Amino acid sequence: MSEGAAKKEQKPRKFQAIRGTRDLLPPETALWSHVEQTAHEVFATFGFGEIRLPIFEPTELFARSIGLDTDIVAKEMFSFEDYEPSSVLEYRSAIITWQEPRDVQGPPGPLGTGALAKFQPFSALLSSFYLAGREAFEKRLIPRTPENGSLLNELVGERDIFLSSIQSRNDRENRADVDRLKERVRRLQLGDELTLRPEATASVCRAYIEHGMQQLPQPVKLYYMGPMFRRERPQKGRYRQFYQIGAEVLGGSDAPAIDAEVIEMVMTFFDRLELQGVQLDINSIGHSADNCRRGYVEKLKAALDKVKDKLGPDSQRRIETNPLRVLDSKLESEQAIIATLPHIADHLCEDCAAHYSAVKHQLEMRGVIYRENWRLVRGLDYYMRTTFEITAQGLGSQNAVCGGGRYDGLVELLGGPPTKGIGFAIGEDRLILSLQESGKAPPQQGRDVYIAWMGERAHATAIRAAKVLRKAGFSVELPPVEQKFGKALGQADKLGAKYALILGDNEVSEGLWTLKTLADGSQEKYTEADLLEYLRKSL
Ligand code: HAM
């Protein structure tokens, strides 16, 4: 190998952010902070309080809330097993990574003596794993699930058969059995199944129940912001780690004014941010009863069955799994067919129809402009009645910047008291993208003052000046090492500083500090007090 190639090979690996995740950097992060700050302010004016939730929860929480047949639960969750270090874990790792010893020389003789020496250690590991596993199972150190129980039981028998068969089989057959047993051992569940949250509505409901929030004045109005995780195919506006800003209203009432006020709040927020091309779509998907959504879904399915051959494979599959989701299809070739399908609005029960028309009336009273979209069904199972989605400009195909709806009954489904709920979540990444596309710049982040100092005495004064100016709220850059004035001014310029505070021997002895305005090059001397006064007025 040449010296160059060797050097190249030694270079440490460079890491990159995982596909679908990304770093958010300044100055863009200033726009993120501005958006989040505006959310805090606007939501507070509607009486919402902030809730901070864990990033991971039991998988079961999401599976039960969002629904097993949804894309999120069926294929997009980042899940992992959470377990304590234990001897079962150690034996499991030892088994999974077990390699048959290469240097075993069985004594010459009948077939199989060498095989026993090679494979018996694996059988011994299985025995230890079984004993540790059984004890952990009894002491509830691993989940006492029926699957774990029968797996352990079966393992003893399989170990016996493996051990007694080693000598009558050739190496290839023994190896195949080792692989099969490794797979069995891997299946023992050592801890709880956890999932990185794909959304936060389920967590808010869990928290509502856990903290007995039904005892608080109702409704309880909460908002959250933070990262969510879904294993989706990354593209513009779609990430695997993305950020949501969401809000939920939980309590005893499903008054249509609550639906309308939640929507008014998110529209007010977008308005405050000057988001462009905002379009609100609303719909009602009724409730799950034969005279309402269930009846409609049957009619829809019958209508879909008739046109099945003209639909693509995804929609064909959805006719069986979840016919409502066919309405979500963006396939050009399916649009004309979908337009002929029955509308849910014509099949709502009396109560749901009345609720829907009252929500529309309430929106009108608030001056909120909406468009009715009978195809808006949403992709999570917990919704009922009101559903809504908001799109904005500049986002391409991933243009939904907010989605939400009513989910009465979800709290009950999670073991809580009968509770009504409605909320939304904004995709913050998409919101920022849309703001950027319409030319919204991040708030200015340039420094107010760059301190150009020379000499040890001046350094001490510079440190004090920085402290005083920062305390007064100015953004100050204090170079850590001495710089020639020319270089310091160049640096101040690059950082977009408005002023350079020049501190040299003269300034320190006179007690007068020189302030240079970088825009026009003019400079003036000030005492410390006058300088503060001047900066307060001019910045
Ligand atoms: P969702 O429609 O799944 O609803 O997500 C809400 C918003 O999050 C979407 O409209 C989109 O802007 C953003 N979003 C979703 N997935 C991604 C992704 N992979 N990359 C970037 N942005 C994404 C919910 O999550 C419900 N929990 C909303 C809700 C709250 N309903 C009632 N309360």
Task: Produce a short descriptive summary.
With 539 residues, the chain is α+β, with helices and mostly antiparallel strands. The chain has helices at residues 3-10, 28-45, 59-66, 71-76, 87-96, 113-138, 146-165, 171-186, 201-210, 256-272, 293-307, 313-321, 335-338, 350-365, 410-413, 428-437, 456-471, 485-494, 505-510, 528-538, and strands at 49-50, 56-58, 79-82, 192-196, 220-229, 241-251, 279-284, 371-372, 384-391, 400-406, 420-427, 449-453, 476-477, 499-503, 513-517, 523-526. Helix 10 runs parallel beside helix 14.
Explain this structure to me?
The protein has 539 residues and is of the alpha+beta class. It is 45% helix and 16% strand. It has helices at 3-10, 28-45, 59-66, 71-76, 87-96, 113-138, 146-165, 171-186, 201-210, 256-272, 293-307, 313-321, 335-338, 350-365, 410-413, 428-437, 456-471, 485-494, 505-510, 528-538; strands at residues 49-50, 56-58, 79-82, 192-196, 220-229, 241-251, 279-284, 371-372, 384-391, 400-406, 420-427, 449-453, 476-477, 499-503, 513-517, 523-526. The strands form three sheets. It has an eight-stranded mixed β-sheet with strand order 1-5-6-11-10-9-7-8, sandwiched between helices. The protein has a five-stranded mixed β-sheet with strand order 13-12-14-15-16, with helices on both faces. Helix 7 (146-165) runs antiparallel to helix 8 and helix 10 (256-272) runs parallel beside helix 14 (350-365). The longest helix has 26 residues, at 113-138. It is globular, with a radius of gyration of 33 Å. The mean pLDDT is 93. The structure holds histidyl-adenosine monophosphate.
